[in-house]
Amino acid sequence: MKKYILFIAFAVNFYLVNAQDRSSFYTNLFNPFLANPAMAGCYDNLHTILNARTMVGGIESAPRTINFAMHSPFANNTGLGLKVINHWNGAFRTINTEGAYSKVVKLKDNHNLTFGLSVGFMQTNLNLDLINSSVDLSDPSLNLPDLNRVNFTSGAGLVYRYKSHFEFYASSPMMVTGAQSLNGFFLMGTNYKFYLDHNKAYSLKPTVNYYNFTQAPKLMDLLVTGAWNDVLQLTGGYRSNGSLIAGFGFNFKNVVVGYNYYHHTSELTRLAPAQNEIAIAFNFKKPEKGAPKKQEVVDKAIIEDQIEKINLRINGLISLEKSNPGLVNVKNELSKINRDLEKILSKYKIESIEQLKRIKELQTSIELLIAKYND
Q1: What are the CB-based long-range contacts (under 8 Å, 24+) for 224-231?
Q2: Is 111 in a helix, a strand, or coil?
Q3: At 84, which helix (H) or strand (E)?
Q4: Dist CA 130 CA 90 (whole Å)
Q5: In sequence order, which residues have a C-beta less than 8 Å from that of residue 261 and are 6 or more positions away?
Q6: pLDDT band at 237, cuts 50/70/90?
Q7: What φ, ψ does residue 367 adopt, rounded to 5°?
Q8: CB-based contacts of 78: which residues, under 8 Å, 6+ apart?
């Protein structure tokens, strides 16, 4: 009987506390869209991601979460998305499903502010099949409405970006839940990408995240991510609950695979030493259309950056041929560079006479070099 009474007390408390407070769902590092609807459409194409996390590894029936999300840019600087969060905690299950909308506001050159809103529903239920046999399943307390309920949910967020370097974000992902008053949980963070070489192949990105929990101690992440050509990335850091974080990710064309390991150094080690998180994401390219594409109107700095990259590639190729003759097929590489210049001309609407002149000069230089290596 004592076990039974304790179980009922725990069940009611779970709904009032944990089911309503879903904040631990949003400490996910792989998929910021889960916590911030303003991230909808932040990629150039349709992005889908599936990831799973064990909250306390090594314990049967320990909390675990499986998430699915998809989002894409839409017309007129908007984005649309869908997220599904599946969370299990012993015999309890919570499903959170929300659609998201985002809108980009261009402040001035290289400065963008994105607002986002998500709406959907949350369902909580108790799986009686997973309850210990010592509990009297015929008791009406197990069918309390509070243990099986569907609630309306809504969240909001914003992201400020400067070029592709700096990002600041803040959100309240569970701002409204049913008839409850506005939830005080929010998260915010910032990151800055540093390029370590002229070709921008290597980068470092320090990240700071802050989680303002309402029913648990506040939390902070201090992370550093190193990347090579957006193909390989390594992450290391510390979470203020006493977890050391190590992770890696691989980008195989349009498929991204990632893994994070959280090593507990605090009192949580008494339960389990670690937490694990894995993810797989897909980026779907837009289908090619027969009609010519409309040229994009972008900031001059973006085009200038593309031109400078081409110039660096040419100079690097010439230097490599001088130091190691015959190591690469110079003619083929120059032809590739020339094609990339043509892509810049076809993709962007270039209104600067100076930039058009520079592109023409680079094309002339490439043609002269190709002719030289043909001799």
Answers
A1: 226/202, 227/202, 227/203, 228/201, 228/202, 229/201
A2: strand
A3: strand 78-89
A4: 7
A5: 245, 246, 247, 274, 275, 276, 277
A6: very high
A7: -60, -40
A8: 41, 101, 102, 103, 104
Listed residue (24, 15, 8, 7) closest to 148, CA to CA: 15
The DSSP code for 30 is: S
Query: Which range, 54-63, 120-129, 246-255, 260-269, is most confident?
Result: 246-255
Count CB atoms within 10 A of the CB of residue 279. 21
Kindly list the distances between the CA atom of residue 133 and the CA atoms of 46, 129, 350, in Å, as whole numbers in the listed order.
47, 9, 72
- Is residue 134's pLDDT more than 60? no
CATH 2.40.160.40 residue spans of the chain: 2-284
Q: Does the pTM exceed 0.85?
A: no
53, amino acid identity: R
Question: CA 94, CA 176: separation in Å to the nearest integer?
Answer: 16
Helices (H), 135-286: none
pLDDT digits (tens, 9 = 90+) for 107-122: 888 899 999 999 999 9
Which residue, 355, 317, 320, 319, is CA-closest to 336? 317
Closest CA to 207 of 195, 187, 222: 222
What SS3 state is found at 271? coil
Helices 300-323/353-374 angle, 10° precision? 20
- How far, in Å, CA of 311 to CA of 198, rounded? 11
For residue 141, give the DSSP letter.
G
Could you give the residue ranges of the DSSP H alpha helices within the chain? 2-13, 300-323, 330-347, 353-374
Architecture of the domain defined by 2-284: Beta Barrel (2.40)
Tell me the chain's radius of gyration from C-alpha atoms.
Answer: 26
Distance from first CA to last CA of the chain, Å, rounded? 95
Torsion sign over Cα 255, 194, 157, 222: positive
